[in-house]
Automatic annotation (TrEMBL):
The keyword Transmembrane helix is assigned to this record: yes
TM stretches of this protein: 43-64, 76-97
Protein name as catalogued: YdbS-like PH domain-containing protein
One Pfam family here: bPH_2
Lineage per the UniProt record: Bacteria, Pseudomonadati, Pseudomonadota, Betaproteobacteria, Burkholderiales
UniProtKB keywords: Membrane, Transmembrane, Transmembrane helix
Segments forming domain YdbS-like PH: 102-176
Length: 189
């Protein structure tokens, strides 16, 4: 099968390996890494103060001085180190999202919608086309955006209501992809 979509060959091969016999790809694409990473920027509103407070706490626990090891050394300031590391990990999450976007592929076939993600461990999610009911499109001025194909509400382990969205996030020309899916759905009904 020839790679007529604008995706790297190794991802096209990964997609081909997931296809059922006779299944035909009608569209395939990837998230735009620079836009996909922006979803992680919202976390910065939490992790900037978290990290700043952990630094302040470590400094306060050491008496706002660089420790001198002449009188022994207190381990107490090190209790703030895990919180500082969590803050650094949270602040770096947009960059991890950007890296992960390069290993993701989205596809629509004549039978289902598929997302494949992961670098070492691969996660494949798909929904049959007949389960796509209310498509939600979030479009930016440049034509990119998110296409939500299915929203599922469920109760988590604590009994709280949670929502899971399946779709294609941070894709280019989102309206065109929506139109292609809607035409495919019409042709099958």
């Amino acid at each position: 099968m020839i790679n007529t979509f604008n995706i790297p060959e190794h991802l096209h091969e990964r997609l081909r390996s997931e296809l059922k016999a006779g299944e035909i790809i009608t569209w395939a694409g990837q998230p735009i890494p620079s836009i996909y990473m922006k979803s992680g920027m919202k976390l910065w509103f939490f992790f900037i103060p978290w990290t700043a407070f952990s630094i302040f706490w470590i400094a306060g626990a050491s008496g706002f001085e660089i420790p001198s090891f002449e009188e022994g050394w207190s381990l107490f300031p090190l209790f703030g180190l895990p919180f500082f590391l969590i803050g650094i990990m949270g602040l770096s999450s947009p960059f991890w999202l950007k890296k992960n976007a390069r290993s993701m592929v989205y596809a629509v076939t004549d039978q289902r919608a598929i997302t494949i993600s992961g670098i070492k461990t691969i996660t494949v999610k798909s929904i049959p086309l007949d389960q796509i009911k209310n498509i939600e499109r979030i479009q930016h001025a440049n034509g990119s955006g998110d296409l939500i194909l299915q929203t599922r509400t469920y109760l988590d382990n604590d009994g709280d209501r949670s929502t899971e969205k399946f779709g294609f996030f941070a894709i280019d020309n989102v309206k065109k992809v929506q139109t292609e899916i809607e035409q495919l759905l019409k042709s099958q009904s």
